[in-house]
Amino acid sequence: MDQLYLIRKTLGDLIPRHQQVFSNNQFFCGVSIPEPPEMEPLELKYPNLSHQTLSLMKSCLRMDPSERLTCEQLLRHPYFHSMREKSESTSREQDRPNYKRTRLPRRHLPPGVSNENKIPTIYSLDNKKYYNNLRKEITQKQILQVPEGK
């Protein structure tokens, strides 16, 4: 009951539909909402809030639900412009190209094959075989070339 009183004191009288719901509720049978001696609008309750903030609050707290702004309309409210600008400037900073040179991982490829050519994954298995065989050949040649006198 005290909440309904404070709502009336701040936002004004209930709309007819809300009054009907209240009067038909068995819990409130025979009870009436006290009438506030004077109104205390949001501007008086929150004197330090900006005009945009108060406007947003009033848009959310309209007594008649059909008069309240939709979520989409609220997000376009001037109150959010400064936040939107901050968000856009942050996203612009993130979208800037990073001029730091990033180093790509090296791929050891057989002679005559460049990085620009796209190599199928099957080739990478052949690539390992190629290098293993090459390593064996080089090792055998080095063994054969060692002078016997040493």
From TrEMBL:
Extent of Basic and acidic residues compositional bias: 82-98
Species of provenance: Xenoophorus captivus
Matches recorded under InterPro entries: Kinase-like_dom_sf
Comp. bias intervals (Basic residues): 99-109
Name under which the protein is recorded: Cyclin-dependent kinase-like 1
The encoding gene: CDKL1
UniProt region (Disordered), positions on chain: 82-117
